[in-house]
Amino acid sequence: MILETLLVTAPDWAVRHSTVLIPIVPLVVAPVLAMSPSGRLAWLVSIATTAASLYFALLTLAIVQSTTGGVISYHIGNWAPPIGIEFRVDSLNAMILLIVTLMGFLASIFSWPTIVAEISKEKAGLFLCAFLLCFAGLCGVATTGDAFNLFVFLEISSLSTYVLVAMGAGRDRRALPAAFDYLIMGTLGASFYVVGVGFLYAATGTLNMADIAAQLPALGANRSVQVGFAFIIVGLGLKAAMWPLHQWLPNAYAYSPSFVTMFLAATATKVALYALIRWMFTIFQPEFAFEQALFTWVLAPLGMAAMVICSFQAVFQTDIRRMLAYSSVAQVGYMILGISLGTAAGVSAGLLHLFNHALMKGALFMAVAGICLNVQGTTLRDFAGLGRSAPFTMTAFAIAGLSLIGVPLTAGFISKLQLGYALFEQGWWWAVLLVVFSSFLAVFYVGRVLQAVFFQPPANPSKLRKEAPLLLLVPLWTLALANLYFGIDASFPAGLARDGAVAALGLEAFQ
Amino acid sequence: MPAFLASLNPGWLLIVAGVIALFVKVRVVRQAISIIAPIVGILMLATAQHGVDHMTYETLGIKMSFYRVDSLNFLFGLAFLIAALLNAIYALHTDNKTQDGMALAYAGSAIAATFAGDLMTLFIFWEITAITSVFMVLQAGTRASYFASMRYLGIQILSGVLLLDGIAYVWHYQGDLSLKAFTDLNQPGALIIFIAFGIKAAFPFLHNWLQDSYPKATVTGAVVLSAFTTKLAVYAFARVFPGQHELIWIGAVMTCFPVFFAVIENDLRKVLAYSTNNQVGFMICAIGVGTPLALNGAVAHAFADILFKGLLFMSMGAVLYRTGTTKANELGGLYRSMPWTTLFCLVGAISISAMPLFSAFVTKSMILSAVASTGMVVVWLMLMFASAGVLEHSGIKIPYFAFFGHDSGKRVKEAPFNMLLAMGMASFLCIAIGLPAFIPGFGYEWLYSLLPYPIEAASYQPFTIGHILAQLQLLALAVFAFVLLQRLGLYPPEKPGVILDTDWLYRKAGYGAARWIDTVWAKLGPALTSLFRSLSERAYDRLVDTFSPRGVLARNGVAGGMAVWTTVILAVVLLLSYLTS
Prior knowledge:
The structure holds two protein chains of two kinds.
Chain A: H1 2-9, H2 12-34, H3 39-66, E1 72-75, E2 86-89, H4 91-118, H5 124-143, H6 147-166, H7 175-204, H8 209-219, H9 223-239, H10 248-255, H11 258-283, H12 289-315, H13 320-340, H14 344-374, H15 380-383, H16 386-389, H17 391-405, H18 411-426, H19 429-455, H20 470-488, H21 491-505
Chain B: H1 3-6, H2 10-23, H3 27-47, E1 56-59, E2 62-65, H4 71-90, H5 97-114, H6 119-138, H7 143-174, H8 190-200, H9 208-213, H10 219-240, H11 246-264, H12 268-289, H13 292-323, H14 339-352, H15 359-374, H16 377-403, H17 417-432, H18 444-449, H19 454-459, H20 465-488, H21 504-547, H22 558-580
Antiparallel strand pairs in B: 1-2
Helix pairs in contact in B: 2-3, 2-5, 3-4, 3-5, 4-5, 4-10, 4-13, 4-17, 5-6, 5-10, 6-7, 6-10, 7-8, 8-10, 10-12, 10-13, 11-12, 11-16, 12-13, 12-15, 12-16, 13-14, 13-15, 13-17, 14-16, 14-17, 16-20
């Protein structure tokens, strides 16, 4: 309904170029921000930029939903693929683009108070420049239809992320080793990816994804194709924090500026997961024997291991942000488990959980950011008694926490339910038990925080604690209420996830 | 009388009145409520149209009918209302909110259950009788009464739960909860419902709650209890299991076995409790026979029993109230100081003994005739033996040991006037329904005209030479036996003591076993707990060692470990690709 009005009212140029404008606008604005004299001005511009990207993402979604076949193909510089670079958007990446731009927009709104508190005002312009670059890179990964172009965008986002994480040093010096570790491992992942693309280029002679997909069946069991596939899966798996390649993530999330944590948690791993799905389902086909083996013997066990082991690790963390970071890895495990089923229900459950996880982790980390503004610390002790001094922030935190557990009437429940259905359909009832057990562990690690927040006296009553600023509360509550709303009426995200799974698997998978 | 009252279940009126009475502090107002409510209830019942579902409600697909009067339940309801009125008068000397309110609500729920038109409604009020009646025992306030009331409540609730269980079966297999007779005990749920009713009717081996709780109840509580619970069960059997032949033998055994216990029992209220068993046995036996004559007899005997058993409990209550005891060895010679109570007790004793011109004669003779017409000689002989036994323990033993016998030396005041009034009214009714119809339509004919099969009842003649002679012979024999045994010193002397009944099994042996298990557990429990705790502590330590920030998983240098892992995963994926292609 809203999407249709958007499509009708949009100017002609916007409709034609919306796809490419999503990453290009922030990419162009970013260098300008670096030269901005005033941090506040830079902040306002960054909001406008992300809002523009959000607008174009919605427009793209509207176009995808209204066209038959649901694919937009945009030729950069009118060079037709496979020679030229193609931007290709279908229901799958339209959904990812919506998540990234929406989270980027909400993050940029509340960024100002945290920048002031954690980074000096003089660096605000540079910081926001890095943020917009990262944002543009993520959008680019989700739009491009070219395998090598994807690597370029991945590197744009990764390099800016290293900078963003390192900026946390103003608050906690441990951000520097965390950023360094992330740099090493992220580069490792990106190199693996580009090595894999190289193998495929050697075998097929093309870099366009659709073109690779068209040529692969003819090649049969080509060794270099298989090696390329293995490198790509491991490289993207590392970026998506697939257990046990997740070890860059806890430190990066725990020590980066709180605004960056929120943005990365809600978007970065999601985009890498998208790329993984794109490679596994659109370019390669689940019918390939080695891919089936990969699903059954690698992805499903790793997903389940992530669910259980990282939930256990989350239970024992004393720092709230590390706890949430481990929980993120566990949630990635749910998504990978869903995807590894290779069925329509499984992929759609994985995508739905991806969407809902962005909502809940976004809200959780945003609430933590609000607390960081007033309390210098994010350990469990610092959170004691906050329910009384910051009721609005912590209530939103509690809602998102319940959604993380998967309490009925929250979004998290719906996606875990869908995942359970998909597992049952496959006859993997024991995996359902593992999902339930992992949710049970989530009760512990979330419950521990909620207990401290609402039922323990403050650790240091003399310290002044107050509510987060309104600038933060508005996006925070938007996400918290979305968690509740999509827990009751899940038709919108479930529709997106279903369309995404259709785009990945083809319509016949749903028959 | 407003029209709507004619279609309102009088039981509900009594329940509401009872709940109000619970909160009324002013004694006069509360007692006025307790007396007026049953009178209004009787008027309501008298004007109610028969055979119509007056109050219906449908929920969850179950049609509930809250008020349906017909010829079978009319007399039960009337007897319950009269009993409620007599109880209220009998309790006038007390000032106890809980007891007054609960007694009224108990009576009301028994009446509401009687007029229930379907099994679900019957169950609801069945449970309410259990909960309200327990206060009659609890209000005595002694330690023994507390434990007895808890045992009583447990068994009554068990009966309710079984009933619900049976109803669930019936609902599932027949989809219809209307009150109709089960023809076969093998029908789904029928046996469970049968047992549920049997508990309330105090079947043999299910009877102990009765002897356990009634003697420990308060003075008025025992009177209230004697009227409703067992008779409600009798009604339920007459409604749902008429002509069920198992009931004949169960009833016959029920009439006989309490005789032995009653004869040697020292506590006179406990004697009356056994005698309740015995009387209910006659009704159950008649329901088992199931002919119109037998059912007439069962209903009429239930009506008479409510009156004379109430009267006997009232007289023993008066004795308890004045002397503080009902132990036969501590009583005797009270006729000097309590002449009116003695008189009324004798009326009750003669009535229960079925002396011609008193109530039980016109009712029990129907039962005996019905059983005789089936040709079951053994059953008939058992009933005859039980009839003699009734005279032995209720007709002679009760008044003899309380008011005559050896003089205990107790010189007390006569019972309070309200007690005498209630006893007098009960005595009047006992005699009135036992008299021949000197005026047509009065005497026993009034009772007969209200029975479920009035045409058969009208053709039945209780006052025949044969009936009278047989009964008088029986009575004469029983009196002779008593006198002879008493003279020879063979009659069981009135001695304090505990008589072992089958409840020994759960009250002593079962309790002992529970105590033993408790002791063993007290020794074993801590050991198990510490074992469990050390195991769980070790498991927790393991988890912490593995997963905590200081644990194994967080130990290695991050970047190096990751590089290794990346290689491992790559190797696994490559290996898989080679193996599968």
